[in-house]
Amino acid sequence: MQPIKPIKLGANKSSINEKLSSAEMGKLWATYMGNSMSKCILSYYLQHVEDNDIKSLLENALSLCKEFIQTTTEIFQKENFPIPKGFGPEDVNLGAPRLFEDEFYVHYLKYIAKAGLSIYTIAVPIVFRKDVNEFFTHCLHSTISLMEQIKEILMNKGYMIKPPIIPVPERVDFVQNDFLNGFFGHVRPLHALEIAHFYDNIENNVTSKALIMAFAQVVKDEKIRELFERGRDGTAKNVEQYMKMLLKENLPTPTFIDDLVTDSTFSPFSDKLMLYHKMDMFTMKIRAFGNSLAVNGRHDIGALYTKSFMKVGVFVENAAEIMIEKGWMEQPPYAIDRKKLASN
Q1: What residue ranges of the chain have pLDDT lower than 50?
Q2: Is the dihedral of CA 318, 91, 268, 140 positive or negative?
Q3: Would you state the torsion angle of the CA atoms of residues 87, 89, 90, 95, taken in this order, to the nearest 10 degrees?
Q4: Which of 121, 117, 109 is nearest to 149 (CA)?
Q5: Furthest CA-CA distance within the chain
Q6: 10 Å Cβ neighbour count for 318?
Q7: CB-CB contact of 136 with 123 (8 Å)
Q8: What's residue 293's pLDDT?
Q9: Confidence (pTM)
Q10: pLDDT at 153
Q11: H helices within 47-191, ranges in order?
């Protein structure tokens, strides 16, 4: 498996006096935080991986994390921007026993690669400074290359099924009055975009469930454990509901991967890292549900995603409250507080 080549940024900005915009600051900050966390996790995975193909994949992913951290650090230093604390050696125990089987690592990489793509695809249209734009374009292309390697291993090793096959339309057609029906009257079959998003949400959430189950198994703080257990049970219920929608149409679905978590109760990660990770990934679910709602037409599907959206929102809020309570939540760059200035 070929390593993904690093980028060498041009030294020049678009203008010698050009400052970082709010979008550039925010996306660079998020990129640093996410990749400092992933560096810890992937370094631990590499301590136990046995399959050589999966080991190469993990090494490629870790190399990208290190490169992205280095580049964001260099840009921050040029601007005298304080380097975020993020996550480091204190947040990972590389000597901890194996918590996951090798196959899990591939599903996990697809899970976090999707999260990375969501950051980079939004960044590219809204960043303008030449060096930052080059960096995020590189991040996007590199993560796409990594995703191709992930998919190749998933398929070659039989770890996943492709999205369901449906018939090619015989002609161009237009919807009827029952298109939006979901609870009453004639309910039409799922259309291709609805199927695609159910498949994607199931795929994301079976990995999310296995990960949060593992975290609940090893976390030290009891309050965080209870939150993880609620998140695990809520995720399982959501997955079952999405699977039911596909099974009613006699369509195949991805399956749970809980069996890829070992029985270890020795934590390889700090409670801070695990809580941040699940808060961040549940936040990504909110975006996924929004995308799913945007292409949906049936009332019952809209209600299902809205309910999921609300449950996930409660989890994220509870996680944020614990992060703040423990002094773990770093503050992103923010605008000037004009009201506070006026009161001084």
Answers
A1: none
A2: positive
A3: 130
A4: 109
A5: 70
A6: 18
A7: yes
A8: 87
A9: 0.93
A10: 96
A11: 52-78, 102-126, 130-156
